[in-house]
């Protein structure tokens, strides 16, 4: 068995999947309707909407398989997300990648697989609409087009979710998505009795970059800053763009020492990015930091406001 390769954009892909907030949610008719159609139209035993998480594939819609998830390393869909087009295995027993896969040698004894990679805005692939069967088969061109058409329906449904919660430019959470994540994280922190930290970032001299070098260059700065946040904060941390040149992060199970360590690491990453870009300007920022205990009664908006006030204090002190 050959394990699926990890995509180069794995960090962005996982973040986008997390921001959609569809993992471990109830089945929805808009997805189930398509998998039911696919199972019936193609006459296969299994049809799934499979989302590829860090270590597992989880089924948002499941027709015919007695499981809600499997390990990513044995998944067919883990291979499919690395493709731009359909990923088709006509006979798994004749393919070295799958011949000894436990999904082939044991129940459900898969012999045929066809997966359509589900892409969201930004070209990130988060999973598949897939067909599986216990007998080998070939897919004619007409059937392949039909699977693509059904996959496009699923993509449209996912994109409608994405538009509500993700910032289209940077592909991290927008304000609405971040606030929803914070509300969820607060419940977890209260249950586990762990404190949190809110970091609010404001880019310095950003208007000058737009004025002197154009908005396209300014957009590049925003994208770079978001990527630096993705690369240097933990997967358990929530990050977002509140709008304009303001970014925010929520660190769970955090204290002063951990937050300070995070800020030092992030500052080094920004400095390294500035050196690599070799531009006539530098990415500069002010940051406000506020800690909150697990039993805080403050809302997410109130916590952000306090971090915002701390950020402006930091900005004013540096301006003197």
Word description of this protein:
45% of the residues lie in helices and 22% in strands. The chain is α+β, with helices and mostly antiparallel strands. The chain has a six-stranded antiparallel sheet.
Task: Fill in the keyword field for this structure.
alpha+beta; 6-stranded antiparallel beta sheet; 4-stranded antiparallel beta sheet
Gist?
The chain is of the alpha+beta class and 320 residues long. The protein is built from ten helices and ten strands. The strands form two sheets. A six-stranded antiparallel beta sheet has the order 3-2-1-6-5-4. It has a four-stranded antiparallel beta sheet with strand order 8-9-7-10, with helices on both faces.
Task: Describe the largest sheet.
Answer: 6 strands, antiparallel
Helix-strand sequence: HHEEEHEHEEHHEHHEEHEH
Beta fraction: 15-25%
Radius of gyration: 23 Å
Q: Which spans have pLDDT < 50 for at least 5 consecutive residues? A: none
Separation of the first and last Cα atoms: 63 Å
Tally of separate helices: 10
Mean pLDDT: 92
Cα shape: elongated
Sheet/helix structural class: alpha+beta
Which bin fits the share of residues in helices? Answer: 40-55%
Query: What is the number of strand segments?
Result: 10
Q: Which strand order spans the largest sheet, edge to edge or round the barrel?
A: 3-2-1-6-5-4
